[in-house]
Amino acid sequence: MLTVNHLAKSYDGEKKSLTDVSFSVHPGEVTVIIGPSGAGKTTILRSINQLIRDDDGEILFDDTDMRQLNRSQLRRARCRIGMIFQNYNLIEPLTAIENVLHGCLGTKSNLAGIFSLYSNREKETALKLLEKVGLKDFAYQQCRNLSGGQKQRVGIARALMQHPKIILCDEPIASLDPKSTITVMDILRDLAINDGISVLINLHQVDIAREYADHVIGINNGQVVFDDRTQALSDAAITGIYQKGAVPERSLVHEF
Amino acid sequence: MNSNVEEMNDFFTKKRFKLTLLIVILGAAYIGASMGLGFQSHSLLNIQDGIAWLIQNFIPNEASKGYWHEIVQQLLRTFLVAVAATSCAAVISLFLAVIGAKTLTPAITISWVIRGFSSLLRNIPIVAWAMILLFSFKQNDLTGFLALFFMTLGFLTRAFMETIEDFGTEKIQALQATGATYLQVIFQGLLPEIAVALMSWILYMIENNVRDATLVGLLTGTGVGFIFNLYFKSLRYGAAGLVVLSVIILVVTVELISNLIGRLLS
Ligand SMILES: Nc1ncnc2c1ncn2[C@@H]1O[C@H](COP(=O)(O)OP(=O)(O)OP(=O)(O)O)[C@@H](O)[C@H]1O
Ligand SMILES: [Mg+2]
Question: Crossing angle for the helix pair B141-167 and B108-123, nearest 10 degrees?
Answer without folding.
Answer: 140
